[in-house]
Amino acid sequence: MHCPFCRHSDSRVIDSRTADDGTAIRRRRQCPECGKRFTTAETVTLTVVKRSGVTEGFSRGKVVSGVRKACQGRPVSDDDLALLAQTVEENVRASGCAEISSHDLGLAILTPLRHLDEIAYLRFASVYRAFEGLEDFEAEIALLRAERDLAGADLTDHTSPPGEQPPGSRDELTSSSP
Ligand SMILES: [Zn+2]
Fold first, then answer.
1. C-alpha distances in Å from residue 21, one per residue of 82, 95, 113, 137
2. Its pTM surpasses 0.90
3. 60 C-alpha to center of ligand 1: Å?
4. Which H helix or E strand runs over 37?
């Protein structure tokens, strides 16, 4: 690898360590010519296999452009989309796969998209899970509702109703006085 400072054609590895839970290796290098140090990262190249059998490198940009259409008119920013693409890449890498079909990649986008925007999720899911009619939308919306109710119930579970004292606490306070 060329030195990024002086373009010398060689460099020496002075330290290497795994990073990102073992899915990447970072190497600290030193240029023997100018003596400057720099870091390189080595990761497995994620390959996306299209339905036609053609393969291409995974690209966060392509994830973003694929999802952007489903987000039209929705309160979703470019930063949201960039973060979503990053999450998708991290999830796919964490699964240990070096190769993913474009269809599975679409499915991997669904969960983070659901947390980002439910309408965009429904639009995207209708394509990638091949919704055939209203029943499919209804089933999906029922799932979203159930999930939302579950999240709501979770919030109230941790707080005790107002005005109710845990049993025994008042007795302990007064028991020492005659
Ligand atoms: Zn150099």
1. 21, 11, 24, 37
2. no
3. 31
4. strand 37-43
